[in-house]
């Protein structure tokens, strides 16, 4: 069981709190081992939207596998983000033992006050970037990105980007298929990467109204590492191979094979970024050897260069 503890401060933004909480709550509904709790210095916290929230006042025992998330709060300046020394001590202790510490929006300031930002990449709301950089010159404030992950420290730009960050963590720990399912359950059709506006292949081609194609995509998402032949899909869904290909292309702009390759490529890139060799990544996502993966990666780099 992995415990997720939200450190709730007065004037917390509801979406900063509820967005990441809903991601992990939905992950639990999908059978993943998460337990959520909410801790504050007082038993009742008034949010920025004036809604009272009840919290525990004692911290649960935490291990290195657990997560502390600090949602952002309404503030005119980072000086207004003033967690208690008890809360800062918990952040330091948890981070020291290797636990993940996450902030949303202005709450990056809480990580700074705990002494966790020095030498680390971090993000915050775009209106607070200059102030954060001035307050913590030893930190690398990455501007105009949705989120950053630097070891066991993760920070997001604010408000809805807390959802993007927590979906990214789910994808890292449990795979992009699981993260995509959670995003779909939340009706989040634009899960974004931290550094740019590119969305996951699992969601990029889901903004259509074809039930048939959605069901086809569900099969491919589930079995993207396996050989999938049009004849098999045709029998499963009771329509011709030509109809499947036409309907799929009309809805997504891709053939079923190209969609499967996009899923494989995205997962392979994630594995390679995590230290896996190209050969091992190719095998893990279903390619018989690394040549196809290398060709797809090269084609993607060429397309990106042309687009820029």
From TrEMBL:
Residues 214-293 form the HTH araC/xylS-type domain. It comes from the Bacteria. GO terms for molecular function: DNA-binding transcription factor activity; sequence-specific DNA binding. Keywords: Transcription, Transcription regulation. The keyword Transcription applies. Gene3D superfamilies: 3.40.50.880, Homeodomain-like. InterPro entries: Class_I_gatase-like (IPR029062), DJ-1/PfpI (IPR002818), Homeodomain-like_sf (IPR009057), HTH_AraC (IPR018060), INH-QAR (IPR052158). The keyword rRNA processing does not apply. PROSITE patterns: HTH_ARAC_FAMILY_2. Coiled coil: none annotated. This is Transcriptional regulator GlxA family with amidase domain.
